[in-house]
Amino acid sequence: MERQGRIIIRGVVQGVGFRPFVYAKAHELGIVGTVQNAGSEVRINAYGDKFEKFLELVAAGTPHSIIDSVETLPLTDPQPDTFSIITSAEGSLSGLIPPDIATCDDCIADIFEKSGRYEDYFATSCVNCGPRYSIIRSLPYDRERTAMDEFPACNDCLTEYTDPLCRRHHAQTIACDSCGPRLTLLTSKGEILPVSDPIHKTAVLLDQGEIIAIRGIGGFHIACTGDAANKLKQILGRPEQPLAIMAPLKEIRDLADLSEEEEKILKSPAAPIMVLDKKDPAAIPHVSNLHTIGCMLPYTGLHHLLFADLKAPFLIMTSANVPGYPMITDLEQAVARLSGTVSYIFTHNREIVNRCDDSVIRKEHIIRLSRGLAPRRIAHNLGNEAILGVGPELNANVTIYRDGFTITSPHVGNVRNPATFAYLKETIERLSGLLKPDIKVIAHDLHPQFLSTRLAKEMAEETGATVIPVQHHMAHIAAACQEPCVGIAIDGVGYGTDGKIWGGEIFTGEVPDLHRAAHLMPVLMPGGDLATKFPERMFFGILPDEDTERILLSRGWSDSDIRVLSQQVTRRFNTVQTTSTGRVLDAAAALLGICRQKTYDGEPAMRLESAAWGIKPELWPLSFSKDGNCRVLDTAFLLRIARDEYLRSKGDFGVIRTIASSFQFNLARGIVLLATDAADEGGFTKVALSGGVSYNEAIRRTIADEVHSRGMELVINTDYPLGDGCISYGQCVWAGMSIR
Known about the structure:
By secondary structure, this protein is α/β, with parallel strands linked by helices.
């Protein structure tokens, strides 16, 4: 039986209370020695009769740690008399610190303990909770390398920090009202308000209908009560966009259908926004006019304290940045950008080193990978070379591969915006600074004009790295499945290998050898991006005939407007072709009068789904054709059936809802038949699904049901978003499998 050894534990072992955990186990078992952070590994020198039991316990890790490997080596160093935590050292960087963690129940209890040391202190935390990624500057994870370095611990905090029996033993974020970050309430112009209790005052102002910017863990939110929701929407210029709410669990249960699994995710340390089905689809339309609503629980001490003083049942909590732009993180930015939106600014004085928006999940599928979920680290053997995936243009993030792991950043945004493009570069620098990869391969989107493509090429010129372009929808499938499969990629738009705009694709093969086997019928987008903003243009582009003209005329289009639109289609002037699934759904929403103008990303398709919610679809015929070696689903044929039904409906909204449900169902049925027929023909047993349209529950369920009925396996990667938040990961996978 071994009585001593050097134990090296690798993985996510920083920022998870690992050293105090090891110390406690050593104390419990009479082990002497040392424990030390070294890069992203923990090194333990241990001596004692119960060494093997100690090894078993420490190898299990803490609740938030991820153990990759445990190595035991001989130990010849002299045996010390005690067990101690020693100064951190350089070491392996294959791991990473965890994402930010919601305030734990123990700390919440401390905050509300009368006359307790942490009573009413908003930044209370311990080894099991609190900010991590948002405050880290470099590894190893010690206070002096975080934003907490600005707040030297007081004697009372130091006492707990050095107490092996305290859960704040070696908690790098330990702070109290005497020594930690503080709160300030300001006017929108940045003038400090002299209030003794800024949390209570903020709650009172919110209950009075004021709109307030609140600085959180990863950036600023704009907050108001439900009564002020319409006012906020008008100020933001987004009158139709659904807003997320923060509320206690009871309020969420009263408002939405909450499955056991959804409640588990909602209450998890990640504390994401959950997109839930309302019990009454028509409830609180001023907050969300869809059948769903985004809900999250209070996840910081500040949130819990606010709700303790708040009379309103819930708060609107929306990111303070413009959609697609980076989170606002500092006070100067908030004053400059939000003074016309909010009346007050409620802030703390702890620096946000790494901004992080709220994560969003629907059912088990991630919509936005961010706070609490990212950086996301996945074990994956892609070879020995370090790889960078710079992501897509919209809903971007970045992924770095090194030493058998991919690490994906939190959500970045739409990099066609200069500010977000700068944030993309900043994110690459931050993640590279933590991981220290020697990048040899840079993967980017196939589109030659994307800013991220140019960045990849510039970086390659500077470093000598190899660049690998990856087609957008093939990256979707690479993110979903790395085995032989049929891949379904259904989304908005992506640059195809033929230089055309794709978005409804069926592939066969195995990454990186995928072949386009089928697709949706290419349709016209009159005006290009203008057809995305005004989906009636899309409707006309697919069905450019007199029946469509009559519908548009009845809605206020002039003869000259329609003549110009018709000439665009006939002459193909400023008109592109696309196989996009999203644009076809937009056209259906426009035809049915459900959404005539897009005011936020994905609005037409989301409103179409809501209109169809709970309505039994009708079975329609399908039409297929061939395009070379590809089979093609005729989406104009489906839209024509929908239009015929619409003209017979005479505006009856019940009938229109049935048409919406039937269109979604039959479109999904056509897509999955393309895929399963290709699988039968090629002998594939797996069907992978990815792309933003897959968030539509009715479409995803229809695809799943048909795949399963044919005896095949549906593969969906639930570790990453179905939308473009998986692309940088897919690019890394594709590049790694290309060079192995």
